[in-house]
UniProtKB/TrEMBL annotation:
Residues 1-172 form the FAD-binding PCMH-type domain. It comes from Cellulomonas avistercoris. Gene3D superfamilies: 3.30.465.10. This is FAD binding domain-containing protein. PROSITE patterns: FAD_PCMH. It holds the Pfam family FAD_binding_5. It comes from the Bacteria.
Length: 265
């Protein structure tokens, strides 16, 4: 869809990220160009900043906000990263064409904050921390599980820009399992559940798509069935045409038991 914009700027330095009234940051643009954007009069291209898409660090892995889904999926993992299959599972959950995978960015999917945003599911499930550039020239860090606070809502303030996501080595090296369900074979995720067991025995359960925002629970050791049912009781379940709340609760409970049993085995 054509946008009624009068300017397009290529960001070369951080100073170029100061947005004028009506300007919006542009990365892959797969959502931005998919529907009308009232009030948007200019775009600032983030891709021209040249951020390295995926980089190994001493602490784990850094994924640039401008990294495309395709670049993340094709990254060759370290042999010690036993949780890496979760990446492919979440990429497949997006159910996008290869053309869209080559354009859509990881940061864009998180910033859009859809309950079924599979990059949010992936990064939250792996305890990733979002690195956010602030307008004053500083930066702040926030867990992805906390960054998304509801459908279409994040903690990002005006002028803030997602720079990267840092995935810790302990999560990449953990034993992990993922399950996803949708109403149709090629439909949007109705529930996506990730379980992870770290080397110290800690078990993390992350629920997305079935809830308005990521929900995470940690257990010191593999939980009992009663403990799992207990933490899922009372959650707010998302309600839209991709699934009713009571159905989402039922399937999420089933999936949670499955992934937790898998990582505990």
């Amino acid at each position: 869809m054509d946008l009624a914009v009068s300017s397009l700027r290529a960001a070369r330095t951080r100073a170029d990220l100061r947005l004028a009234p009506g300007e919006r940051p542009l990365a892959g643009g797969t959502w931005l160009f998919s529907e009308p954007q009232p009030g948007v009069t200019g775009l600032v291209d983030l891709m021209s900043l040249g951020w390295e898409p995926v980089a190994r660090t001493a602490a784990g892995l850094r994924v640039a906000a401008t990294c495309t889904v395709e670049q993340l999926a094709s990254h060759a993992p370290d042999p010690a990263w036993s949780a890496w299959p979760v990446v492919a599972a979440c990429v497949d959950a997006l159910l996008m064409s290869f053309k869209v995978q080559g354009q859509a960015t990881v940061g864009g999917n998180v910033a859009l904050a859809l309950p079924a945003g599979a990059m949010t599911s992936l990064l939250a499930g792996l305890d990733a921390v979002a690195v956010v550039w602030t307008p004053d020239g500083g930066e702040r860090c926030e867990a992805v599980a906390d960054l998304v606070v509801g459908p279409g809502r994040t903690t990002l303030e005006p002028g803030e820009v997602l720079r990267a996501f840092d995935v810790p080595a302990h999560a990449l090296q953990a034993r992990a399992a993922v399950r996803q369900v949708a109403l149709t074979a090629v439909g949007r995720s109705s529930s996506l559940v990730v379980a992870r067991r770290d080397a110290d025995g800690t078990v993390t359960l992350t629920v997305t798509a079935a809830t308005p925002r990521p929900v995470q629970h940690r257990f010191a050791c593999p939980p009992t069935s009663a403990q799992v049912d207990g933490v899922l009781t009372g959650l707010e379940w998302y309600d839209d045409l991709h699934g009713a709340p009571d159905w989402r609760r039922a399937v999420t409970t089933l999936l949670a038991h499955e992934v937790l049993a898998e990582v505990a085995a």
